[in-house]
What does this fold into?
Amino acid sequence: MSGPAKHYDVALIGGGIMGVSTAYYLKTLAPAMSVAVIEPDPTYEFCSTLRASGGARRLFSCPENIEMSNYSIEFIEQFPKAMAVGEREAPVDWVQGGYLFIVPPKDMPMLEASYATQRAHGCDVHLLTPAQLKERWPSMMVDDLAGGVHSPGDGWCDPNGLLQGFRRKAISLGVEFIADRVTDLSLRGAAVSAATLASGNRIETDNFVNAAGAWSAGIASMAGMHLPVSPLRRFEHYFTAGNPVERLPYVKDTARLAFRSEGVGFSGGLVDGDEPRGFNFEVDHDYFERVVWPAVAERFPPFEAAKCHRTWSGLYEQCELDGNPIIGNWQGRLDNFYTIAGFSGHGMMHAPAAGRGLAELMVHGSYQTIDLTRLGYQRVIDNAPYREAGIL
Ligand SMILES: Cc1cc2nc3c(=O)[nH]c(=O)nc-3n(C[C@H](O)[C@H](O)[C@H](O)COP(=O)(O)OP(=O)(O)OC[C@H]3O[C@@H](n4cnc5c(N)ncnc54)[C@H](O)[C@@H]3O)c2cc1C
It folds into this structure.
């Protein structure tokens, strides 16, 4: 049975990391604002955030991504105390294990250009020769490499801790969570006026935020908006090396192999960008042996005897235009309908800065901390990709 429509100043569609971060910042910047998060699954079974690897790095080429990392990593470091509710801290198990990008000769100009941009944005990054890489990580095969960049201040955390910490804090500030699914949006003139929910209830708000991650294109289409964001399945594996290996940072190469130390073993995977798009959570249990293991063992020979203990799948919310997120409203067309989606594998690490940025845009009408204008929807309308040139 549906009752009378409930009214809020802002309703966020999706309560993953983008929804909870934006809700938290909205209530921090505008405490009197009424904010609701519509999230159908309080267990978050399929949401991407809980399936993430937890990595957070400053190694990007676009200044916006570097700045979002600078802000977010500092925020994550302070998170347990800053996001405490009463006496209860918000643990996120931050490990400052560092990141390491390694490249063959053809990609060295890209690595050096990104390194220069990172330095210009105050990042603690170090350009290393193959000999220096070998000295630092003796297990690594470096014969085909031209160099690498190491960022010792980067690391990884527990995505569930981050999500739950934001969620608890947001609730303590007065954000309301509605356990329901948006099934339709109503338009009035140039605005989205209401959302219909699976329960039959209706939510009327002054502003909506599409924070539905891999599901965001479906939400956008309910408002007649084309959002080039697709679900892209990615596997994450927990494995052990089988032979002694030194502790490794989060290592990434240009073939999209990405893994890091985790407890007594390692966690990571190899993204297949050609994976057919769709809501496919099936696990291919041969993928590690077929694709990941050969790549890991070639780069680090002690992994010759590696054993995969667990594989899980999750969805990247892949921005098909350029691999960068879409943040902001559809100006002049649907001014009250905001998007924060398409992070293409970097959403957990950028959620604090992106949520803050969007909240600033909604409350103040402009960005105050980091100028994210270039990540707006206008580039979709203009078909003008703004690509991240670094390793994805
Ligand atoms: C295997 C894997 C590893 C990753 N590793 C990293 C990493 O190391 N570092 C990093 O920064 N990022 C990583 N990512 C990416 C990161 O997980 C995502 O970018 C991020 O979680 C996206 O957050 P989100 O809130 O946009 O989406 P989600 O977390 O998916 O949240 C979207 C929510 O919307 C809800 N929803 C869907 N439909 C509706 C509807 N109709 N109405 C209301 N709500 C709806 C869903 O239930 C869901 O909870 C990884 C992703 C995967 C899959």
Q: What stands out?
A: The mean pLDDT is 96. Residues 48 and 209 are 18 Å apart (CA to CA). DSSP finds nine helices and 18 strands in the chain. The longest helix spans residues 63-82.
